[in-house]
TrEMBL record:
Residues 1-10 have a biased composition (Basic and acidic residues). Residues 1-58 are annotated as: Disordered. It comes from Mantoniella antarctica. This is Uncharacterized protein. It comes from the Eukaryota. Residues 30-43 have a biased composition (Low complexity).
Length: 211
């Protein structure tokens, strides 16, 4: 009886065998397919890769920089070209002929200044007599001749001569004028008198005003 009562109380024999589960049943499947990246979202919505995103950002940055709106510094070569172009434009705008520069920078002795100016010639009343600083010589001598003067509407003949300064210590300044273009002597000496230029024939050009 004791054995039957025990069996009826438990309903089952305590040593009844338990079902054995296979180890392969509990272990998840680790097939190569299981290592794939998560499935994409809804069809048509493709996520851009990091490389593609960086490429797009670089293109956009270059486009903005090309428009002058980017923060990238201007290449040094471009700056040098702009500076050179600006300097060249400025120099062209301020250009002065070489002849004018030579005339302005050419030193003129103090004694020579007495010969620079306008003069009157008694042999040719009213005709031009002008002496200025020369470019390839000390002086440029310009004038006109009438028949004989230039006060009554006579036809005038212009001429241009070259002159050089003669400086001798303890003597008044002298000027040598080449009159060969007018059919005269090559080196005609003129002496400064304090009021004009006296030539060997006794003719004196009286100084009117300084240039």
């Amino acid at each position: 009886e004791g054995g039957d009562a025990h069996d009826g109380h438990l309903g089952k024999h305590p040593s009844a065998p338990m079902p054995i589960m296979s180890v392969s049943t509990l272990r998840p499947t680790l097939s190569p397919a299981g290592l794939r990246a998560p499935a994409a979202g809804p069809r048509g919505s493709k996520r851009p890769s990091a490389v593609a995103a960086r490429g797009s950002s670089t293109r956009n940055h270059k486009s903005v920089a090309a428009l002058g709106c980017g923060k990238s510094p201007v290449p040094p070569l471009v700056l040098q070209t702009l500076v050179a172009a600006t300097a060249f434009s400025l120099c062209a705008a301020l250009a002065v002929p070489d002849a004018a520069i030579a005339a302005l920078s050419k030193p003129l002795p103090g004694s020579a200044s007495v010969f620079v100016g306008e003069f009157s010639d008694p042999k040719h009343p009213g005709c031009l007599r002008s002496i200025g600083v020369g470019e390839d010589s000390a002086f440029d001598v310009k004038g006109t001749d009438g028949s004989p003067g230039c006060l009554n509407g006579e036809k005038q003949r212009p001429w241009s001569l070259k002159g050089d300064l003669v400086e001798i210590p303890s003597k008044a300044p002298e000027i040598l004028i080449d009159f060969t273009p007018k059919g005269g002597p090559k080196n005609l000496l003129g002496k400064w008198t304090g009021t004009g230029i006296l030539f060997p024939d006794g003719n004196e050009w009286k100084k009117l005003s300084a240039q």
